Amino acid sequence: MSLPKTKQGVQIIVALDNMEVNGALFVAERLSGMCWGFKINDLLLEAGVSVIPKLRRFGKVFCDPKLEDIPYTVTNCVKKLSRAGANLISVDASGNGGKDRLQAALSAIGNSDACGIAGTTVLTSEKSFAERDFFHAAFTIVLVKADAVICSAADLKLLNRYPGYRRVLKITPGIRPSWWRNDADDQKRVATPEEAVWAGSDYLVIGRPITESPDPKESLRKIRQNIADFLASKEQEQCLYEP
After folding, report:
1. What does each C-alpha distance from 120 to 91, 101, 111, 231 come to in angstroms?
2. How many domains does the chain have?
3. Does 118 have pLDDT greater than 90?
4. β-pair partners for 218
5. CATH code assigned at 164
6. H helices then E strands: how many in the chain?
7. Is 39 marked within a binding site?
8. What average pLDDT does this structure show over 127-133?
9. Is there a domain that residue 3 lies in?
10. Any known ligand binding at 161?
């Protein structure tokens, strides 16, 4: 499993969405060494698995197809993605078929430490959903011992009520820095990096605020600094209140 919970704190995964191969590789090269790695989804449709080793030159790769199919097909997809070098693969954990899909994905990677499986719960573009459906998916992810749960910062607050969810790593999409605005943004349940970190996220998935910036490197640096300043202020507050 390639998602260690580090002492350095939260990690950032840059989402290379709505980009062509050359543009994605250009951004990845510029951000190399500044983040955990890169998330790809629609890029797989354009370039296929051959883009994975190209991105691996600049960081780890999170393939985010949100696999939702019969276990046989999920197995085949996971094998191809992991053999190409994917470090993390997302599988839909919702509904009655979530458990079988996750188990198929985990069986496909075996005991490999190079690749992990993350279960998706509720998309951050969905404004309303049944809380029981979210918990069903989250419980399934923990039950089968998948490596990570993907959910919004607001959903993390629900998980934090229960100690049983503390083991699994939390990946949070829908991250929007307070200084970023886009009227065409389709994400509904968003959070700032600071809010997600405070809610307990281990990995933040951030795309457009970085990739659509005139200077992606500076935007990522600014986000990292915002998080560092926030954590430092919280640590200082804790020291002030300690007897």
Report:
1. 6, 11, 21, 27
2. 1
3. yes
4. none
5. 3.20.20.70
6. 10, 8
7. yes
8. 68
9. no
10. no
Higher pLDDT, residue 144 or 234? 144
3-state secondary structure of 18: coil
Instruction: Output the DSSP codes for 218-239.
Output: HHHHHHHHHHHHHHHHHHHHHH
Structural domain contains residue 177 = yes
Whether residue 5 is contained in a domain is answered as: no
What is the amino acid identity at position 129? F
Local confidence band at 6 (pLDDT 50, 70, 90 cut-offs):
very low
| Cα dihedral value 118, 123, 129, 131, nearest 10 | 20
Is 132 a known ligand-binding residue? no
- The residues annotated as belonging to the active site are 64, 66, 69
Q: Which domain holds residue 45?
A: 11-241
Tally Cβ neighbours within 10 Å of residue 199: 20
Six-digit token pair at 40? 């790809």
Is 99 inside a domain boundary?
yes
- pLDDT of 186 reads 58
176 marked as part of a ligand binding site: yes
Confirm whether residue 185 is marked as ligand binding: no
